[in-house]
Design goal:
This protein has about 260 residues and is α/β, with parallel strands linked by helices. It contains 9 helices and 16 strands. About 25% of the residues lie in helices and about 30% in strands. The longest helix is centred in the C-terminal third of the chain and has 12 residues. It starts with a strand and ends in an 11-residue tail after the last helix.
Amino acid sequence: MKCVILAGGLGTRISEESQFRPKPMIEIGGMPVLWHIMKNYSVYGINEFIVCAGYKQHIIKEWFANYFLYQSDVTFDYADGKNKIIINNKNIESWKISVVDTGLYTETGGRIKRVREYIGDETFMLTYGDAVGDIDINALLKFHKIHGKTGTVTMYNYGQAKGVVEVDSSGVLKSFREKSNYDGDLINIGYMVFEPKLFDYIEGDATVFEKEPIVNLVREKEIVGYTHKGFWQCMDTLKEKQKLEMLWNSGEAPWKLWKN
């Protein structure tokens, strides 16, 4: 099974970092968040990835072009006029990665449609390149197959950022309590599964995946929601990036499902 990763946006909300590189290439623990996402899918046997690149897409391509060297112990032998490279030890994943330039200003739906030829006529995973979580991919896929719909999205209660106040019709406070993880609405956190029929819902480059395609799928009752109750965190701001970095440095990153 293949996994499509949306990694082409400008990342303006974290411009402190994204002015230099695409947001999926911002590092957590010295490795791009894109790598962390791929490692999690790899735990569940998904090792073929299609990266929908756009903004500064050359940085993604160059990083993977050098990944073999990054993950290996290398001897550069220049003795006696030689120019020999010896790989002493390698520690790389069995990944197949297609980095596709889907355009600088193409919308999310358009990016997905542009990689149609890479997917073929099979069920595929779809996610965003800026968030990590401990989602059980096997359970997600089983849920998708049981329901037999065109798509499945993973839902998550991200909680409430502020205290909660309840008032009566005259404006008198009935109750006040601190925020709770049970407050707030369920949101789509990516980690989606789709059938190729999805492409029929995407018109072209200007299509925002989260608007017309999803709205039409909902109207036709062709999409279901799988609820995740573990860990998930996006990386939209510098504060969120620092939170992920702190978790990683603590040695207790909840999304790290793989062994060293």
